[in-house]
Amino acid sequence: MDTIKQAGNFVSDKVNSATSSASKEANKDVAKDSNQNIGDRVQAGGNAVKDKFDSKAYDASAEANKQGATH
């Protein structure tokens, strides 16, 4: 039963990682856009950093769940 749960968590973590990566790229684009006001650019830059951190955390969690599901 734990194997099924870990497999489900693996899939969930991979989806969340992909979502965070896409959000990071969108925020990077806003941060680089000189047509945006400075407040939006700074906020987007901060959000991009947070999204990258989240993506790495989800990847690590997914790997742990993958290892748990295969053993």
TrEMBL record:
<dbReference type="InterPro" id="IPR020100">
    <property type="entry name" value="Glc-repressible_Grg1"/>
</dbReference>
<feature type="region of interest" description="Disordered">
    <location>
        <begin position="1"/>
        <end position="51"/>
    </location>
</feature>
<dbReference type="Pfam" id="PF11034">
    <property type="entry name" value="Grg1"/>
</dbReference>
<feature type="compositionally biased region" description="Polar residues">
    <location>
        <begin position="14"/>
        <end position="24"/>
    </location>
</feature>
<protein>
    <submittedName>
        <fullName>Glucose-repressible protein Grg1</fullName>
    </submittedName>
</protein>
